[in-house]
Design brief:
binds S-adenosyl-L-homocysteine, Transcription Regulator spoIIAA, Archaeosine Trna-guanine Transglycosylase, Chain: A, domain 4, seven-stranded mixed beta sheet, alpha/beta, Rossmann fold, 3 domains, six-stranded mixed beta sheet
């Protein structure tokens, strides 16, 4: 049962209610959208999975309206702080309009390749949409929102007339949310493999069906261009190169002399090689398969030197419990990189672990520099591109750190 009934009239059935424990309400009055099971005192009105519910403080004060999922640790995701605003088609439509308007402002009407909807940051917790030209790639991380997928697909077709909408599910979401959606075509025709997107005037092939996450890391768009500015004539090592985002920008935009890209995924490297060819930089750029840690150790043992090293590892901290281990991982990676840098070399070091703060990351870099007996100057502290906005109500949406540093 989906209770979408407006709650204003006296005759409507009241929505089920989730009542918080004492002193647990502040984050939700502050508009954080995730109500974890541990904050809840009791549930009244027997809501079914995916039903709309009202969130109230222990004292009974209205806080917000959300969607209920008893199988998720995020028991309720909140979408409206207005008592009179039901979670209905009109609300979803308005949220999509706001999200689309931002990307039109950033990229113009064509909005060829970008993140179109970024979950909590766009008021749609549990929905991520990337736009690849005429195709959309949708990822659901909320079972309750996914239960409304037909409404969303209709709205997206009305607003954007995509040729096709492909849906993918992130690893682990089945267990976390009780959500089972197979990777599949939702509407329209299947996306070609690869699709092509333009970024910073470069072309990239993307496999949205088999590629990682949603296929391409748009969040690094501005960082790739920013890094390129420092690389004229440089020899560059691009660790965790995936399909060549930084490598190709370094060669083509930055006029780097030589770029060596390393990644553990052969399929990503195949695409990276095709992308280098597509952009006419195959003679400057080479890609090789390898584990990052082992490759760095080998290069250090060989006394190799580079003018610039780029480190863009996958998320290393997935839970608070994993933070310390992740910190050690970041330390080792960066420590090895420093041994490969020429004096006054450039270290571009990223972390997409939202749980690791900017300050923590900076601390790790300080330790690395001390340990290597080098001085490290931070030239630019960068984050994620503007089509991945940060919600001030949900700090978890600020996840990407990209430090451009000079290592003296
Ligand atoms: N820099 C890329 C994105 C990197 S995503 C870009 O600009 O598009 C992280 C990458 O790390 C993935 O391509 C993944 O295949 C790779 N990876 C994960 N573990 C690895 C390891 N141990 N060694 C090398 N690469 C690894």
């Amino acid at each position: 049962m989906t209770t979408d009934a407006p709650q204003t009239g006296e005759t409507t059935v009241p929505l089920p209610t989730v009542i918080l424990k004492k002193r647990k309400a502040l984050p939700f009055f502050s508009r954080h959208p995730w109500v974890f099971a541990g904050a809840i005192a009791r549930v009244e009105g027997d809501p079914q999975p995916t039903d709309e519910v009202v969130l109230r403080s222990h004292e009974g004060q209205f806080i917000a309206r959300g969607l209920y999922n008893p199988e998720s640790n995020i028991r309720v995701r909140l979408y409206s702080w207005d008592e009179n605003q039901p979670l209905d088609r009109a609300l979803w439509s308005a949220r999509l309009d706001d999200a689309i308007a931002l990307r039109r402002k950033l990229f113009g009407k064509s909005a060829a390749g970008c993140r179109l909807v970024f979950s909590e940051s766009d008021g749609l917790s549990g929905l991520t949409i990337d736009r690849y030209g005429d195709f959309l790639l949708v990822q659901w991380t909320s079972r309750a929102l996914a239960a409304r997928q037909q409404v969303f697909y209709e709205l997206l077709n009305e607003k954007l007339s995509p040729r096709g909408i492909w849906q993918r599910t992130e690893k682990g979401v089945g267990d976390a949310e009780g959500l089972e959606i197979a990777d599949s075509l939702a509407t329209g025709s299947e996306p070609p493999r690869p699709l092509f997107v333009e970024e910073n005037g470069l072309q990239f092939g993307v496999d949205v069906v088999e590629g990682q996450k949603t296929g391409f890391y748009f969040d690094q768009r501005d960082n790739r261009a920013a890094v390129a500015r420092y690389l004229k004539g440089a020899s560059v090592l691009d660790m965790f190169c995936y399909t060549g985002g930084f490598s190709i920008a370094a060669a083509k935009l930055g006029d780097a002399r030589r770029v060596r890209g390393v990644d553990s995924s052969e399929s990503a490297l195949d695409m990276a090689r095709r992308n280098a060819e597509l952009n006419g930089v195959s003679s400057q750029v080479s890609f090789e398969q390898g584990d990052a840690f082992r490759t760095l150790e080998t290069l250090v043992a060989e006394n190799a030197r580079f003018d610039a090293v780029i480190l863009d590892p996958p998320k290393m901290a997935r839970s608070r419990g994993g933070l310390e281990r992740a910190a050690r991982g970041y330390f080792s990676l960066n420590r090895l990189a420093l041994d490969l840098l020429e004096p006054n070399g450039l270290l571009v070091t990223c972390s997409c672990s939202g749980l690791l703060s900017r300050e923590d990351f900076e601390q790790i870099l300080a330790k690395v520099a001390l340990d290597a007996n080098r001085s490290l100057q931070v030239l630019e502290v960068r984050g994620q591109a503007a089509d991945h906005p940060v919600s001030v109500h949900c700090v978890e949406t600020s996840y990407l750190k990209c430090f451009i540093c000079r290592v003296v």
